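From the pipeline queue, job 12 of 40. The input is one protein chain; the requested action is below.

Action: predict structure.
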Amino acid sequence: MTASPERVPCTVVTGFLGAGKTTLLRHVIENAAGKRLAIIVNEFGDVGIDGDILKGCGVDACPEENIVELANGCICCTVADDFVPALDQILSRVPRVDHILIETSGLALPKPLVQAFQWPSVKSRVTVDGVIAVVDGPALAEGRVSSDMDALQAQRAADDSLDHDDPVEEVFEDQVACADLIILSKSDLMDAAGHERAYAIVSEHLSRAVKIVPTSQGKIDPSVLLGLGLAVEDDIENRKTHHDDELDHEHDDFDSFVIELPSIAAPADLARKVSEAAEAENVLRVKGFVDVAGKPMRLLVQAVGPRVNHHFDRAWEPGEDRRSRLVVIGLKGLNRPAIERILAS
């Protein structure tokens, strides 16, 4: 069944922490070729970093008011309370949007979200054009679904009552199981053998024919992602996941908090400290904006495990509060004081 032309198509972009979802969406926004876009961003943490990254694009096809952030928890757990009102807000926009992109949090399961598109109040107005899973190529090449699995392995080894599959791996498998297209990110950081290993790991979790597309820096022709016309909500029950028999799921395996920093002098020094904190305290993800003394530009910092990227993304606005804030995400039991000490050293 193809999507009805009267309904607005929605693309669900899912993927684990730091896989590259926001980078991919930013590229899509900047190359929309006149298509009017709206984005729903589901944050994990207290600060809308991903939303701010996307709002910084400054593209007429996706104005700032068309980017809606949901920060009250995982979107697949709060569909009725958060997602439907956000959809109402976007669909009221004039001119009418051509396509809606939904960036789920790294821990979200896509199936409950897609099932919400079967609700009569939703199904009459929108349809799921496709589900895109972004996977971390270099991590997979090393046999992991995220950049830092050491803490998970230690937890599993210490507790023989745990199931064979830990929660993070199950989330990854459920995201891949629901996908219509797999984006293998950071392909420029892998050699040929690494590509083969990453492809093999993803392929073994696919129960049907799904294309795996390598990307670098999130660069991909938007026409590859948009306009699939699959009406996924009509097929979602056929996509089997670990959580099919559960009414609800929790994300108690993770902690997140915000650290505020003073202005810094040298971005490279901060990057070194972030990497050191990730190595020492099993941090999965760090992301945020930082004020660099004497610089008119805002520094965007993103880390996946000990791998840290940073660049100036835009100028601070006149009167804007130049606060430095980093969201830190990791496994339950993160040692916040130790992380703060490293970053402040």
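Job complete. DSSP finds twelve helices and twelve strands in the chain.
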